[in-house]
Structures are given as structure tokens and as C-alpha cells.
Amino acid sequence: MDFTPTEEQTAAQGLAARIFRDLSTHERLVAAGTGTDTELWKELCAAGLTAAVEEIGLLGLVLLVEEQGRVTAQVPFASSCVYGLLAVAEHGTDEQRERLLPALRDGTEVAAGALPARGGIRADGEGRLSGPVPYVPWLRDASLVLVADAERRLWIVRTDGPGVATEPVETTAPWSAARLVLDGALGERLGGAGAPGERLGGAGAHEEGRAEATPAYEDRRPYEDRRAREDARAYERVLAVSRIAFAGLQVGVCAGSLALAVAHTNTREQFGRPLSTKQAVLMRAADAHMDTEAIRVTAYEAAWRRDTGLPYRRQALTAAWWASEAGKRVVHAGQHLHGGTGADLDHPVHRHFLWGRQLDAHLGCGSEVLQELGELLASAEEPVREAATEEGAE
Q1: What is the pLDDT of residues 276-304, one digit of tens each?
Q2: CA 154 to chain centre
Q3: Of 340 and 235, which is predicted with more confidence?
Q4: Percent of the chain with pLDDT strictly greater than 90
């Protein structure tokens, strides 16, 4: 394994770090409140960082969102890249890529994701979706939302379409989240493949994006079985990629929290000595550092495996577990090491605390992720692989 970033990844990370550092200041975050910093989002897209994700891969995206997490920048970067750009690029039809990717690259379209599937969304035979999703991060900013139905099929839904209702929801962290309620909303199957539903951005049945013609009735069973397998693969891939990306975001949140704690304990004195000279403080900070590095290395490994075409679902769950469990410990330590200052809701370290706890919940909480990982290890299920690897094996 070699996680050394390429020249392109290093350049993109450096540019992202500069933009986030310069524009995502404490004052701007306070002004943004619980909403998104739209000017920062425009700057990131204008710099080509969203479009670059297709070239620098998932490891590159992890490096970029790590920089976002360091300053808790309030933009839908991970969400739009994972549920929009990468999902369409990997699983969409040629027609869907041509139609949707340009706007996702330049940020004029923003994607959110109603994943993982919780069984609340049902799809009828005409591609109309109904059901609620309690909260979807960044949904208030999104023009498109990737929805997983009860059968784990992926649908693209336009948030301003008929039958789509969103209601703002305030979560632990200010992620512009909203409750999604679908009532006969017309969805477009990601990947097409004979899926019903209107083509987004146009009228009529979704014919252009079909991968192949629907077979005659007597031949449908093998076709439907194969489609179900392909749907399951696409769902597992997108979910695994999202877990890796948000684990990368947690790396940055933890690193930022720890950096603030180090700066505070180096300058804050007690009995004439800096707090950083106390053994208990040193040990707490050291534990937080090791936890942060554990999240980083597992996220990097999972992303690297995905980019190189190796199985990565187990590694994605491992990264998610570390991000959930260790991330919680790190942001608690960061707040604790600030003493009474850490309890100040307006202090920057408290924002890291809130983000760390929200990421813990978003990733599924450690025990839930660990259960899924255990079930996967105990089963004979084939891990997620890149499409090219699977096709070659078949």
C-alpha cells in the first residue's frame, strides 16, 4: 500500500487548504449561522476543485474534505461530490453523464443523498417515489437528491419537482439539513437500464438513458435478477464511497480540534506553567493524536483500494467505525482540554465538537457500523469492487 498523494492530489489539497483557511474564518462561520457559505462554495467551484475530483479519485476527495473539516467549512462539498459527481460518473448512463455532470462539476447543481436505505421510500412501476426520510444533510442547498428505495435501487430526484417537499431540520451540526417527503415524486433511475420515470431536465419517458431494451415478458426473469444484482452493487458502492468520504471529513474535524487544543494548552498557564507541561494533558492529547491518525490511515486505505480497483467495502466500514468511535473521543478531548473555554458555544472548538458528534451519527454510530461489519465478515458475500474488476472477473 502506498498512500503517497500524486502531484495532482497534492496540488489540489494545497489549493483547497488555502481557500478554506482564507475564507472559512470564525467571523464568516458566525455570520453563516446554520446555513451554507454560498460565496465559499462559488470560490471552490470556480477554482475547479469540484471538477478535479473525477481526476484525483476518492483519495483526492478525502484529502480535500480533510481540509474542509479542519475549519468546519459550511459547504456541501463531500455531499455533492459523492452523491452527485462520483455516483453519476461511475454508475450513470452515457446520456446521464453528458447531461448531469457539467452542472455538478461547476457547482450550479448540488446533490444530496438520502442514504443509507431505511425502508421508508417505495417506488411504483412508473418510477414514482413515496415516503419520508427524516433528515438529509445539505438538502436545503441541493437541486438533486439521490434516493435509495426499500429495494436499494438508486433514484435521482429533482428537489423542486412535483411531489417533493422539504422541511428544514436543525441537526447537531449546521449542515443545512432538511426532512424529505416524497408523494408520488417522479424519479430517474441512476444507470437507466429500462427504468421508468421522466428524464430530469426534459419531457417524456426516460428512453435515452436506457442501457438496453427491456426484454420480452417471457425473458424478463433472468434480466430482472441481473438488474437486481447490479442495483445492489451500485447501492453498496455509493454507500461505501460516502462512508469513506465522510470519514475523511472526520479526520479534518479531529485534526482541527486537536490543533486548537494544542495551541490553547501551550499558552494557557496554571501555577506558572503551561498546561501542556502537565502529564495528564500530554497523555490526553497523545491519545487524541493516535485516534486521529487511526481514522486517517483507515480512510486513506479504503479510498486507495477503491481507486486501484481492489475490494473496499470492509475497509469502508472499518474507516466509518474508527471515524465514529475515535472521532467522538477526539472532539471530547479537544473540548475537555480547553477547560471552561470549551463550554463556550461561541468558541471555535465547540464547532468541532458539534461536527464530530454529527459525523458520528451520520456514519451510523459505532455499534451499528460494527454490527454491519461483523455480518459482512461472517457472510460469504463478495466485497465491493470496481466495475472494471468485476466485469473482468465475470
Answers
A1: 778 888 899 999 999 999 999 999 999 99
A2: 16
A3: 235
A4: 64
Query: Quick one: DSSP state of residue 340?
Result: G
Show the cell assigned to 186.
Answer: 417522479
Cβ-proximal residues to 159 (8 Å cutoff; 6+ apart), any chain: 112, 139, 142, 143, 144, 145, 166
- The C-alpha cell that represents 110 in the structure block: 448540488
Taking 60 as the threshold, does the pLDDT of residue 205 lie above it? no
Position 259, amino acid: A
Q: What does DSSP say about strands 273-274 and 269-270: parallel, antiparallel, or unpaired?
A: antiparallel
Contact by Cβ (8 Å): 194, 212: yes
CB atoms near residue 125 (< 10 Å): 6
User: What is the spatial distance between Cα 313 and Cα 187, in angstroms, rounded to a whole number?
Assistant: 27
Query: What are the respective helix, strand and coil percentages of the chain, to the nearest 5?
Result: 60, 10, 30
Q: Which three cell numbers stand for residue 65?
A: 474534505
Return the bridge partners of 129, or none. Answer: 123, 185
Determine the Cα–Cα distance for residues 387 and 238; give it in Å rounded to an integer. Answer: 12
Q: Strand, coil or helix: what is 207?
A: coil
Pairing state of beta strands 122-123 and 128-136?
Answer: antiparallel
The whole-number average pLDDT for the span 327-353 is 89
- Element holding 233 (H helix, E strand): helix 220-267
- CA 50 to CA 37: how far, in whole Å? 16
Strand order in the sheet with 128-136: 122-123, 128-136, 178-186, 164-168
Measuring CA to CA, how many Å separate 246 from each of 79, 119, 278?
9, 22, 34
Report residue 384 CA to chain centroid gap.
17
The total of other beta-carbon atoms located within 10 Å of residue 295's CB is: 28
CA distances from 284 to 70, 151, 280 (A): 20, 45, 6
Report d(CA 337, CA 282) in Å as an integer: 10
Dihedrals phi, psi of 156, to nearest 5 degrees: -100, 125
Per-residue pLDDT at 33: 84
Give the contacts of 163 (CB within 8 A, at least 6 positions apart). 128, 129, 130, 182, 183, 184, 185, 186
Quote the mean pLDDT of the chain: 87
Q: What type of residue is 47?
A: A
For residues 71-84, give the mean pLDDT.
96
Count how many Cα atoms sit within 13 Å of the Cα of residue 198 in the half-sphere of its side chain.
Answer: 14
Q: Are 351 and 72 in contact (CB under 8 A)?
A: yes
